[in-house]
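Why do we bother with a discrete structure alphabet at all? Because it lets us treat a fold like text: something you can write down, compare, and reason about line by line. To make this less abstract, here is a complete entry for Histidine kinase. Read it the way you would read a sentence in a foreign language you are learning: slowly, and without expecting to understand everything at once.
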Amino acid sequence: MSSEEIVDPTLQHDVSVRRVLIHLVLPLFALILGILAVAFIGLHSYRTTRAGVKALTHELLGAVQHYIAQEVSDYIMPAAAGNIVASGMIEHVPVAVQDKVFYSYGAAMLRSVPQLQSFYLADDSGHFTLITRGKDGKNQERTTLQERGGHKVFHHDYFTDDGVKIGEADDDAKDYDPRNRPWYKNTENSTDIKWTQPYLFATSHQFVMTSSLRFKGIDGHTLVFATNISLNELSAFLDHIKVGKSGNAIILDSKGRVMAGRHLMQQAEAAGWDPNKMIINPKTHPVFARGFDHYRVHNFGPASFELNNKRYVTIASPLPNSSEDWVLLLSAPESDFAGFAKQSSQQSLQFAGVIIVFSLVLAALLIRQVRRSERSDRKLRAQASQITRETAAVQQVAATPHLFDPANDSLVLTEQLAHLASAHRASVWRFLHDGSAIICEDSYDQKQDTHSGGFEMSRSEMEDFFKAVEEGEAFTAQNAAADTRTAQFERLVMREVGTHGVAVYPVHGANGVIGTLVLEDAAMAPHLLYFVDLIASVAGMRLASLYGAHTDTPEGASISTADKLHEALQQAASLPATKFDNMLMRAPQTGAVQSSGIYPAVAVLVITFSDPVVDGGTETQGVLDLINRIATEVQRIAIESHLFAVEVAGHRLICMAGCTEHEDPTALIRVAEAALTMRETCMGILAAANLEPVFTMGLDYGAAFGGAVGAEPQVFNLWGQTVSVAELMAQGAADAGTIQVTERVYSVLRDRYLFRSRGAFFAPHLGLGRAYVLAARR
């Protein structure tokens, strides 16, 4: 062999590693670096643009704020500056011409300045003069406070804007005194301009604020000149101001009350024309409310925040020439000022995202290709492993001794099914010969690693499940509770262990379906068709033998019962044989029973048969033969179980054990075993006669009293609540062939037998209790 043909395994391994490194690791690493670079550049560009947008927005909003502040200041200035001009004119003229100067100044200002509403002039003697616009906003009204006949009246003179008098009128002034008005009183001890709080005129829908100034007249009297300025015009101005594309402006005082702004009259009406209630509302103006909160915390200046997934910018600034606590508040979406820049940055980020997505797709395709190869290898290895496991399971099943003998439990079937199918639980069920019930031969819980069996379910309890199994086709239900075929099975069998999915495989016999395999929460069930078919065939052979045994030789049922009762029967072996006397099967001297007495723990089994309906002598003889066969079998089972007595009363059989002065611990076990054996035997006899089960059974355990009654030959009889309740259990059983027991029986036997809860029942003198169905042995 040449040296070129020699293969070095280490070299092959190095080549494989190098191939993976070159074809997968390095391209993937380069791709990740490219993605990170694109993501970093895109994010950095977005953040830089975002910061520029924020700065630009603040600058533009600041410019708009300066413009609006100047406009608002110009709007208010005539009220403040006019007070200074008017007071300077009036204080240097004689008293006789003060009113003329006042009217001349007021008329000129009302004609030229639309936001001014009226002017007041009052002195410390109570004189009062007023000039104002007409109610319709046109012409002028001049009012003086006069005293006539000891009463104060307002005398009104009406003039056109050109100074032509067009009428006059008087009305009662009542106790009006200008010196008590807020615009007069707030100037006390001050020579500065003072502003009143805004107030509303509901009739004229005017929102007015008054500025006033105190000064001395030429005669030494103190005068106050006041100017009323309408804030409606200011609100109209703010309504038409565009702050960006959709921003707004509003004027508030330090307490959050609205002075001017959009929809002022609607807010005034909602507040009941009370200015103190015109507070900024977070529900109707959430952006302004957030901006005002920021002002109260951080004072004047800009603020930015996010509201409802949208960025907003607000700016708060003081208003010159206004009341000291007025705040101008502007708000606008960030996108109104620099939407183009934001859109550009978002597009850049989107382009980066597109590039990243394409890169990720390429990386995913590359990884997918590599993983597909690895997945194929894993599938091949998994298939090989599954074949190995199935082969080992088949070998283990085949190596099980007495595999087809129904007397052998053969737990290997359910164990191997559960392991291979990864099932929570696997079970084998068989139908009774007449199909009226289904019994669990073996159930293996893989999580608990425990076997159980003997559960019995009647057809009336699971009619849909019985029909689905008898169709002979396998079926599955991912959610057994939602499938009509398995809903009853889930409620009665699966719910106790918390399983949800179920796979059902019918077991076929010579004459049809004789049983079924059930897998609960089996992940691998769809991949085990051949193995499940094999186990179903083995189970079919076992069940066919067991099915035939129960159908043909019901007497054989006592064999396994005697084996299971070995320990209990040993304890009862010293009891004398049961004696028979006419219609009573009894043992009056058994168990040291010499006379009547009270027995602390008696087990009483009542079997109730339906009354037969016969027509003719031949049919009557057939019924009597059937009854005789059943009675013979009951006597045989009673003797084998060492029961104390079996009493025949019409269509009832009353079996009892434990009629001793001291408690017999085996009495209840012997009666329970006898009940199970009697049930199987009676069902077999009735099925052989082509009859439906016509009997029910009831079992109770407790104190009773009894004794021999009558002349010779005396017979033994038993009385007490235990006998009555046992008969009540038999009468109240739901289905034919059912053994219904009390809670006292259940509490003693629950470790040895399987029970199903039946619900509550009521017994006279006893009250409510719980009933159970004795299903099978554990």
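What the structure line is telling us, in plain words: The domain at 565-777 is CATH 3.30.70.1230 (Alpha-Beta Plaits). Residues 447 and 723 are 43 Å apart (CA to CA).
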